[in-house]
Amino acid sequence: LERIANDADDPFHRQIPQYDIVFTYGGGPPVVAAYEGFGARLCVPIYNGLDPTTHHPAAADPRFCCDLGLVANRLPDRERRIEEFFLAVAAELHDRHFLLAGAGWADKPMPQNVGFIGHLYTADHNAFNASCLAVLNVSRDSMASNGYSPATRVFEAAGAGACLITDAWQGIEVFFEPDREILVAENGPAVAEHLAHLSPAEAGRIGDAARRRALAEHTYTQRVRLVEDVLAGRLP
């Protein structure tokens, strides 16, 4: 969208009105409106989701026990936000334990209370999500600015019954109810505030509520049904 908006000669301008349907990878109403503005007949966002056969509750693992865990590869359009929402919070809450998993962070300076475990294999996702008091989601810049684009890890953590803290972005409430199914933080200090008041019992309640919501509305089976309904003319 950004590319074609900045180039009146982009050939995609001519293509969009010719498609019967434009499916987008997330994006919500702002992206739908943008495509319709370029002449799309129908634009339908398809979001990430949960596969409950692969991501589900598991026993806690001592390797991953911490107050706040984050699974995130080091990317240029997310590093600044991770510094704010995770590393700066760890530096402030020096008596709490933080755990970072993901590729590319080995040479990144970190506070002493941050453990780094490198790449987290898919087989360990459930144990990781089950072992943290809370799991943090930090969006990439583009996803945060457009909104309505929950990462796959949001649903994976919810499927495991983890208590999620996410950076704020437009449309969160469409997927999970803030304060009941997910905790939302506008900035790093808000993450610290959530951790300061989060008990294991409350974290468990939030995680259970998130899992119920994910199973009820956000499985990949439901995503596929939406695609099939749209293709069959049964519009959402």
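(the above was protein one; protein two follows)
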Amino acid sequence: MYQKTVLPNGVRIITERLPHVRSVTLGAWFEVGSRQEMPDEWGMSHFIEHMMFKGTKSYSARDIAEIMDQRGGQLNAFTDKEQTCYYFKVLDEHFATAAALLQDMLLNSLFLPEDVEKEKNVILEELRMYEDSPEDLVHDLFSDVLWPGHPLGKSILGSEDTIQEFTPERLKAYVARHYTADKLIIACAGNIHHHEVVEALGPAFSTLPRGGRLPGDEPSSAAGRSRFENKEIEQIHLCLGAPSIARGDKRRYPLQVLDAIVGGGVSSLLFQRLREDLGLVYSTYSFTGLYSDIGLSGIYAGFCPENWSRVWDVLLGLFKDVPSLITAEMVERSKQQLRSGMILALESTSTRMTRLAKGEIYEGGPIAPEAVLNLIDSVNYGQVVELAKEIYDPQRWSWAAVGPSHLVKEDVPCKKIC
């Protein structure tokens, strides 16, 4: 059962009581991410996420870590393109401690100059680690190819140049501008009553000021863009795709089914063709990213440079034929895959907390699992095929690759998709 309270300043508190479990997952979601950053703020949302763990007037960074470790809890956060989330997972008996710690971190973090300088080094190491992970890197390059110069196309981590210029004053100003009451959703799922959550967090967060919602510029999209970043590694890592539907589009459920058919498992078209039939790859999959006003759909493959042309030929042929390759049996199998995956995930209080917050962000309120299952069940063969014709059109696609480009002797196949 879902319950929702809106504080006078606009903070939304949403809970789901699960009396059969012993855990509670509590999350604070701010509707701000890297998309809201100005060019000189690139990476600031992510930097602030780190700084919230570096100490308050009441707790040092070590205190925060020891309090959670002593209780066997999980404490973490993440930054996305359009949201930032801070969350705890604890036993129900430790909820009060987690709630007090969460509100103190978000409302009273110090942003000491020495901590900011130290964290610059930490995040620069994270950035270097990311650069050493070509599969992660190629996804960022792919977004940049789709939306060059737009915040959606930029890495969440930022760049060394922008990170080095961050100061406590600038970070605090960003928090004051974006961490406002109207952008905050507190979501909680587990063995806890709604009134306990409101009583524990309401008084502190009711003092949070309101802010204004800043409109984001819709990115311009064009087909046929490409980028090949040379790296002395063993494989080529390729992302190929196009802009797609926004998260509010009702076709997102047919899109989930289509994504599962194309590259969502070991029976998918990509996996069966590239790996099982031809042995050209170890890893390949499809992916989607849905944002407030636009989305993306694409595929990933990692392969030996000498197979560059063969992989491209398979992919281009596959995408041209996707609508005709889809069968009614595939649609039903993928629907069952999505249903089962969702039901299994609901055994986690973390998943349920995330569903509460995302339901509020995407739909204006949580959607019952039964309603989502019905929406998945309602997807039909015709919807999936029509969406495949729209999305899997090589003439609309762009691509990015990372790997030893000098070992590719064949022409880069841009002309085939431009």
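Reviewer note on protein two: The first strand starts at residue 2 and ends at 6.
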